[in-house]
Amino acid sequence: IGGETAEMPDMYQAGDYDLAGFCVGAVERSKLIDGSGIGPGDTLIGIASSGPHSNGYSLIRKVLGIARNHDIDGQPAESLLMTPTTIYVKPLLELGSEITMKGLAHITGGGLTENVPRILPEGVHAEISVNSWAPGPVFDWLATSGNIDADEMRRTFNCGIGMVVVVDSGDAGAALTQLSRSGLESWNIGEIVAGSGGVRYV
């Protein structure tokens, strides 16, 4: 079981405690979604996030400290930045009952740039169209107020995509329809192509 220890020295004071929890599941080996079946021509489906999803807040706090304008589309930035993380479990279970999911990448710290490659087998990379979705006003505000370039944004934040599902190109339409039924916005954000790993933005 992997994991991590969060380092947030500016968050904890003397006498503060961090209460954390986790869950562990079991699955039949034949049903593991391990990315081994991913190949050229497969489609990347990006599922909308509700905001930064608890990642990148060290940088977010710095931006809040230097930003002159804390207004995002008429709402306080602090309020929008506290939007709870979307939980994808139920919609993904429903999706998996309709189509075959070849790979799943939860877009956490490291953004699309670091998380998508973790599910790719050798000999391919992900080609992502940056104009296939709109990151949303929170990420536009962070980039502008913090003078953060596109590469750093994509390495730090989910930029509006909280989960990426890799499916056969023939299942892409059905995947988008099922996710919409589950109440989630999603987009065809790119494809798998032959290559040496990583993500290429086009």
3D architecture notes:
26% of the residues lie in helices and 19% in strands. With 202 residues, the protein is of the alpha+beta class. It has one domain: PurM-like C-terminal domain (Phosphoribosyl-aminoimidazole Synthetase, Chain A, domain 2, Alpha-Beta Complex). The strands form two sheets. A six-stranded mixed sheet has the order 4-6-1-7-5-8. It has a two-stranded antiparallel ribbon with strand order 2-3. A hairpin with a 2-residue loop joins strand 2 and strand 3. The model has no long low-confidence stretch (mean pLDDT 91).
Spans where pLDDT lies below 50 across 5 or more residues: none
How would the global form be characterised? globular
What is the tally of beta strands? 8
Radius of gyration: 18 Å
Percent in helix: 25-40%
Continuous helix count: 7
Query: Kindly, what is the distance between the CA atoms of the first and last residues, rounded to a whole number of angstroms?
Result: 35 Å
Helix and strand run: EHEEHHEHEHHEHEE
CATH class: Alpha Beta
Q: CATH-wise, what's the superfamily?
A: PurM-like C-terminal domain
Q: Under the CATH scheme, which architecture would be assigned?
A: Alpha-Beta Complex
The overall number of domains is 1
How would you classify the helix and strand content by structural class?
A: alpha+beta
Give the overall average pLDDT.
91
What is the beta-strand fraction?
Answer: 15-25%
Going across the major beta sheet, what is the strand order? 4-6-1-7-5-8
CATH topology annotation: Phosphoribosyl-aminoimidazole Synthetase, Chain A, domain 2
The largest pleated sheet is described as: 6 strands, mixed
